[in-house]
Automatic annotation (TrEMBL):
UniProt organism field: Thiothrix caldifontis
Alphabetical list of Gene3D superfamilies matching this protein: Tetratricopeptide repeat domain
Lineage, highest ranks first: Bacteria, Pseudomonadati, Pseudomonadota, Gammaproteobacteria, Thiotrichales
Designated name of the protein: TolB amino-terminal domain-containing protein
Matches recorded under InterPro entries: TPR-like_helical_dom_sf
């Protein structure tokens, strides 16, 4: 039976991005190699040595007589495939198997399992917070030719693997026309080949309204390197799905809030968290916090809600809202639980690192920052916290360089991304540059007023400094202090001590002015 190649590729992508395969690099490489070799008509030539060298990265002198690696991994692969297709909720129309005695894979059309019904309370509300569903398509604008078709396939495959690292979205790998509402957004990449280069036209649209959310054009050499493709993946992710800047996430959250019906329970915590990130104030913070706590009361093992709660603890510390009771305990429990429930999630490692920093465990903080970065090197939100964390722990050069590299990427950066560059400029006595950066911080609690206040003061503009200080007191009744009740004051950290000292000078000037 001849089975369409595209159907096989789509099923392969569905497999390798599924929870059973997602974190198994060796198994995924084995399966991908076996599938592509079989599709190319070389399935009967597959043997332990070629698989070990070409799929599993073993040296050319690998000997299957002395090393049973391939046989062991093949057994694991067959077991995983059997479990995957044995799941009654799996409705794949195609099955990929590896019969015993061969490394050639087989493709079989199959009827879906009969529908199984859960109790109503379980079927209506997923137990894990979910975000929008995204479908990725890539196509050549002209008729596919032998010379350019592989780049189309590779780009789509790389995008799927990259985007699947982001747990706030759900990837849809097959385009099911009869179920259009199983997709929330569609990311289309049209590739045009010129004699000089490749042009990639990206368009992100909302499925239900066809609303245009993001569009961008990239240029690549005719034979792009992996670094070229990774750079595009980084830019695409930053502009679409990164939690601090992704246009798809912000569009989805706004759309959910605009509907006349209540936000679905399994979306609500993420929707209000995203709303807070795009409108940072005490009210939006409180709304996100209450929603998240309500979700966790009902589903205490919701790993994504735990990550959101841990992130909110971090913001409560940085913005000095003091709205979370027992901050240290709440933060630590949420961070630990999230990491235990989802250890392959880069964000879980990132929030655990932030918590370790808060508790003064810098060695473990740095280790977890590195793990988060390695787990998802395409997440600019994690990269920002990586640079910020290193800087605050004393490795200022590495930290500021990471932030500068990040901010060179074209994506809609939140204005509070300028906080660390401001701190760096101010601590190095470049007060004019510090003021320029302070002017760009407009929506991050007291940080904008504070940054402008100390910058004006150091530039000798006392009146303007006191004006900003009055605004600081107006919107933030608690004057920044170095006292560390419950480890809450961010100004105990070395990188901020100069700021605190200047604020204390300004406070004295303010008191003198009021007495007059």
């Amino acid at each position: 039976m001849n089975i369409d190649r595209e159907l096989v590729i789509a099923e392969l992508e569905q497999l390798i991005t599924s929870p059973s395969f997602r974190s198994r690099k060796v198994i995924k490489s084995f399966l991908q190699y076996a599938v592509h070799e079989t599709l190319a008509g070389r399935g009967d030539d597959l043997n332990q040595q070629t698989i070990a060298i070409k799929a599993l990265g073993r040296p050319a002198d690998f000997s299957p007589l002395n090393n049973p690696l391939v046989r062991i991994e093949a057994g694991r692969l067959r077991k995983l495939l059997k479990e995957y297709y044995g799941d009654t909720s799996n409705n794949s129309s195609l099955m990929i198997t590896m019969p015993k005695g061969t490394y050639r894979v087989a493709f079989t059309l199959r009827a879906p399992h009969p529908n199984t019904f859960l109790p109503e309370s379980e079927s209506l509300t997923p137990r894990i917070t979910e975000g929008p569903r995204l479908l990725v398509r890539c196509q050549m604008l002209e008729s596919p030719q032998l010379t350019n078709y592989p780049i189309c396939y590779k780009l789509r495959n790389d995008l799927l693997v990259m985007l699947n690292r982001f747990r706030n979205i759900r990837m849809v790998t097959t385009d099911t026309q009869e179920k259009p509402y199983h997709v929330d957004y569609s990311l289309n990449c049209n590739i045009h080949q010129t004699p000089q280069h490749l042009e990639l036209f990206f368009v992100l649209t909302q499925a239900i309204s066809d609303a245009l959310v993001w569009v961008h054009t990239f240029h690549l050499p005719l034979q792009p390197s992996q670094d070229d493709l990774d750079a595009i993946g980084l830019c695409v992710a930053a502009n679409t799905v990164a939690v601090h800047s992704g246009t798809m996430l912000s569009h989805w959250a706004h759309y959910q809030q605009s509907l006349p019906t209540p936000i679905p329970e399994h979306h609500e915590a993420l929707v209000h968290y995203l709303a807070f990130l795009h409108n940072i104030n005490r009210d939006s913070f409180r709304k996100a916090l209450v929603t998240c706590q309500r979700r966790l009361k009902q589903y205490p093992d919701d790993s994504k809600a735990l990550i959101i709660l841990a992130r909110l603890c971090g913001y409560d510390h940085v913005l000095q809202y003091h709205l979370i009771e027992n901050l240290e305990t709440t933060w630590t429990q949420a961070a630990r639980s999230a990491l235990k429930l989802d250890p392959s999630n880069a964000e879980a490692h990132s929030i655990f690192a932030h918590n370790r920093y808060f508790l003064g465990d810098y060695a473990l903080c740095r280790e977890e920052l590195e793990i988060a970065r390695k787990t998802n090197p395409f997440d600019t939100s994690i990269e920002y916290l990586y640079g910020f964390g290193l800087y605050m722990m004393g490795d200022q050069e590495t930290g500021i360089k990471a932030i500068q590299r990040l901010m060179a990427i074209p994506f809609p950066q939140p204005d509070w991304y300028h906080v660390l560059p401001f701190i760096h400029a101010f601590n190095h006595g470049d007060y004019q540059q510090a003021l320029a950066l302070a002017e760009r911080i407009q929506h991050f609690g007291y940080w904008g007023e504070m940054a402008r206040c100390v910058s004006y003061f150091k530039l000798g503009q006392t009146e303007r400094s006191l004006g900003e200080y009055q605004e600081l007191l107006r919107y933030n009744a608690i004057i920044p202090t170095h006292s560390n009740t419950e480890n809450r004051s961010i100004f105990t950290h070395n990188a901020l001590k100069t700021l605190l000292s200047v604020l204390q000078e300004i406070n004295k000037s303010n008191l003198s002015t009021l007495k007059k």
